[in-house]
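User: Can you write out an input/output pair for a complex, sequences first and structure second?

Assistant: Here is one pair. Inputs:
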Amino acid sequence: MSATVVVAGASMAGLRAAEQLRAAGWDGPVTVIGDEPHMPYNRPPLSKEVLAGKAPFESLAFRPRASVRDVEWRLGTRIVAADLDARHVELADGERLPYAGLVVATGMRPRRLRCPGPLTGRHTVRTLADAQGLHADLSRPGARVVVVGGGFIGCEVAATALGLGAAEVTVVDPMPLPMVGPLGELLARALLRRHEERGVRFALGTGVTAFEGGDRVTGVVLSDGRVLPADVVVESVGSLANTEWLDGNGLDLTDGVLTDEHLRAGGRPDVVAVGDVARFPNARYDGVPRRVEHWSIPTDTAKHAAVTLTAHLNGTGGTGREPFAPLPTFWSDQHDFRLQSFGAPALGLDDVRVLHGDEDGDLLVGYHTDGLLVGVIALGGQSAVMGAARYRAQLLKQPALSAAPALSAAPALSAAPDVAAVPALPVLTGQGAPE
Amino acid sequence: MKVVVDMNKCQDHGQCVFASPDVFSFDDAGRLAYVAEPDDALRDEVEEAADVCPLQAIRIEG
């Protein structure tokens, strides 16, 4: 019987899982498997510094802790299947790797638009290769850029493209405002204005039905009939969980991997999920399991899940621990301003109050449930961010929200971090579902 | 233990200040200040500060 922990996924969540296994007292072998050829790297700069051509790979690579020097990295390797009863994963070349413990950290991939038209000139931003390819395309002089999807990535890419000298940048989104899901109307309106003042155009309340062009995209056909000329298209329309390799094991893979309050999947003590693929209940809020695509989540989940798994493997129990209850946080840098969030604003979108400032300057907004502050978001410069930070301690101390039917129907908390994609948008295409 | 922050990378997110307030702080101008050689007893929280830095600008030596 194997005594190895297999970590499926070699991005930030996989690295943090390996490090936290060591910190939790797991001294046995660890093998991390990832399909990208690179050691784990930091993704937020992909839509900004890397896209702008200012950051080489070396500046993105994480510095793994000394404790994981003996970890085996199998990069450029895909896992295609798993048998959780037999305790092994299967690689693309047919090799089977047995495990004593499995960490699911396979993350997300971008959704693609499935509408008629050429593929060349259309991009997503998830990997280093994606960002480098898009940078090369954006560097065409006088490029006209259409960004489909006005979420985190879309708004950041639009700002970066404009900074690179694109002749025209237009963001298309079926919602009436950019980032309205995670921000709510008030802040999304302020965001829209700031983008427009800096030269980004918006086509809102409309989807995309087709792409024009022969070998290469030349235009984007909108569902309202307009055609936007385009040399470069960026699709930032959300993401899909990489869980197909877990099919057939009785897990709930509806949207990522459903876990319990200690990040165990399918009631199995030897399988945990971490990062943005994990759909976990947060005891701090209403206990409704959600995926959370914030940058802070891989580290938070790895820390908790590593203790869960190590306690099982070392036979030290681990029951009676406090359930997982992270305080979500996200940021987004666009143009010359930053959005900074603490808590769960998406749970308080029905009661949004300006806590400080106004729409013209630094703006700090509070989100409430039953009169209780559940999240804050700042928009502006450093002083706005510091203002939001002052509410962090209060948000940490707040009593847990009780489960309530109204909250169960609340928008997904997976408001998305930075580079890790936006929540599923309403169907953008008139023809067929996205992949 | 020695702490080095690449101030060319630092963008004042402040996550390190939450993780390790004994070592990291903001000065009056809102810029990051830190203890360069903190006590080894603080290693866990300094490691956490390094983990949560969005720019990965914090390096721990020794």
